[in-house]
């Protein structure tokens, strides 16, 4: 008879797994019976379930994951399993101290000089973890770049998913793409297939975020792929990425408006389709609050930080427009508009790169786009706001508006 652990690890049932199945199986697992080589697989599997369903209240967290993070245990794992444990901890929602500890254990394995051949799938997973946690670790970046320069050191062919994740991570964490651009450019310019419409959107968006303005690459490769996209098959997120890509090119890259492509019927048709698809999505999402592509949306999903800052402005009797839609609506909306042209962006934890707490790539680009449109941009960092006493907050806001 299979043990509860092996049944859980080898389960191949179609998603979604029911809550009752997960709970009953988990209750049968005796932590003391788990073998060392099963811990990493458990972390990875549990992390996937938490990510898909947001189950944060199970006994797994205390009975299983608590044992997984034991400091002596992690040293017995190879590189692949350390990545799986790190990923599991991130999606389970462990505290930052634990996640940073597991990332450091991964770095320790990388720099000990004895790391085994790493698969492209594992490299993709490492990048995904860095992207999710907003952590720019130069040692991990150097490790990945060295593997790219020496293909024999990695296991397997470079995939479209890896290219998209690499570029996305570089753009978000503001890593200089100089070292990887020649390699990526060669891959994209070859017969490399961006088989997925969503992947085509990701690669284009990531190139734009990285500031890569290679006219030949854009006109002869990337846009040829984008023109093939069926907009109705795209997720809302990917539709947003294409819309954002076109705005970045038009506002921040002067070369683009001089190309034949920009003035062609094909490009204008693609732009029109993207806008129409974007309009359709938001008419469905905000039926009562749709404002004809301009103005502001009253349906504002506020965090504690947003509510606190907004209520402080109200006490000061300063009138603001929340979630204001610019002339590029939905893609370039702003947290608060102080008429006529001052934009106040409330920057929470996910807008900053660790460990130096610099604004992440997408946020920097957004600020540049808003400034290009003639707005004055004020950023309110979450850590600055949280460090203020209540009686200091009104003066702080007034000083920003001067």
From TrEMBL:
<dbReference type="Pfam" id="PF08373">
    <property type="entry name" value="RAP"/>
</dbReference>
<feature type="domain" description="RAP">
    <location>
        <begin position="342"/>
        <end position="399"/>
    </location>
</feature>
<protein>
    <recommendedName>
        <fullName>RAP domain-containing protein</fullName>
    </recommendedName>
</protein>
<dbReference type="InterPro" id="IPR013584">
    <property type="entry name" value="RAP"/>
</dbReference>
